[in-house]
Amino acid sequence: QVQLVESGGGLVQAGGSLRLSCAASGRSFSKYPMAWFRQAPGKERQFVSAIRWFAATYYVDSVKGRFTISRDNAKNTVHLQMNSLKPEDTAVYYCAVLRVGYPTETYYSGTYNNPNEYDSWGQGTQVTVSS
User: What pairing do the DSSP bridges indicate for beta strands 77-82 and 18-26?
Assistant: First the structure.
């Protein structure tokens, strides 16, 4: 089991920046892919970014070039640096851990963007971007 706590959300003006953090505890962490999802009112939960244990990263097209995901396995933390924020980025942001890690991840056939493939979630942090 893993426990996740997100922080760093807030209110920011369009064009500004925020840095989200996710603190993890519990099961072995370093070899598990982790991801950020977001959900706006009336919308489905949307994949934002993921990072694998060897630091390969993935991003939804709408945030490429603006957001950067990173991890510090020694500190059991994952970050999402968000620059050039837009009002459409407004949402609750959630940190999640994939249900499988290395070496069983070798056989994972997904693309890291399906929320149903993640088995641990934080409670979210609100990001609001004003125009």
Answer: antiparallel
